[in-house]
Amino acid sequence: MAASRPNRLFRNLSAKIxxxxxxxxxxxxxxxxxxxxxxxxxxxxxxxxxxxxxxxDQYERLWETRRWMVSIENLMIYGICMLxxxxxxxxxxxALMDQKIRFESTFRTIILYPYALSFIVTGLxxxxxxxxxxxxxxxxxxxxxxxxxxxxxYNADIAIFGVLIAGLWQGTGLIMVLMLAGLRGIDQExxxxxxxxxxxxxxxxxxxxxxxxxxxxxxTLVLVAAxxxxxxxxxxxxxxxxxxxxTEMPAKYVYDYMFGGQNLGQGFAASTMMLLAxxxxxxxxxxxxxxxxxRG
Length: 296
Prior knowledge:
By secondary structure, the protein is an all-alpha fold. It has one domain: MetI-like fold, CATH 1.10.3720.10. The chain contains 14 helices and no strands. It has helices at about 5-10, 15-40, 55-65, 65-95, 105-115, 120-130, 135-140, 160-185, 190-195, 200-210, 215-230, 235-240, 250-260, 265-295. Helix 3 (about 55-65) packs across helix 14 (about 265-295), helix 6 crosses helix 8 (about 160-185) and helix 8 (about 160-185) runs antiparallel to helix 11 (about 215-230). The two termini are about 25 Å apart. The relative contact order is 0.13.
């Protein structure tokens, strides 16, 4: 037993040596950068990092700032709606694609195409589409619907939903592809058995297929949730955080304070809170994925 351990240690030695630079990079850049950011969030750093410990002052100031509270509220609205609608629409599209329809590859490419665009392009495109002067509102009014109003980006109460439309347009295609891959992994014998038993298709999806796709749903949830927390370029391109601060997001708050407001301490505190939000999603996922396998 003891003799087998050194042999196991030196197995695939060249691959382990080749991985050392990447491991060191991850430790220094990611782990080291994270620790450095969290540590300096307890300082009064302004334009340059300065180790002047002020305790939780930056966090108290952060949660007393209206702009930060608006950004958290927007993140919650955008995040919850994005998760619900993108999962529902993505799964429905995947279920339709799984019916072996004609020109499936063409439709799949069309639906997935927006994901290939950057969020900057998506934001600019939907800024034009939702512009009342020459967008959807202008087109429908020119067709005779003079009373039609659709200018969400210019109404502070619903501006975040205009951003949500753009986010769904870009991200739903990826979710559809992930769900379609999960559906294609379902044994066809299950479908044959449900047809023989006369089980309706919607019951098959809800009570059999969806529970079997649990790993796909969890992985997709982590990917989408992480993207939601760090959404920045879509906001900058589409609304710039406006009107006023109606579409402010935490990532934009961090960038503005660190580079525009020259208040590194406040930016570090905000980015630490974003890190906590990501950990709230990733840690339960890691526990469910790896902890359950270990117990099994």
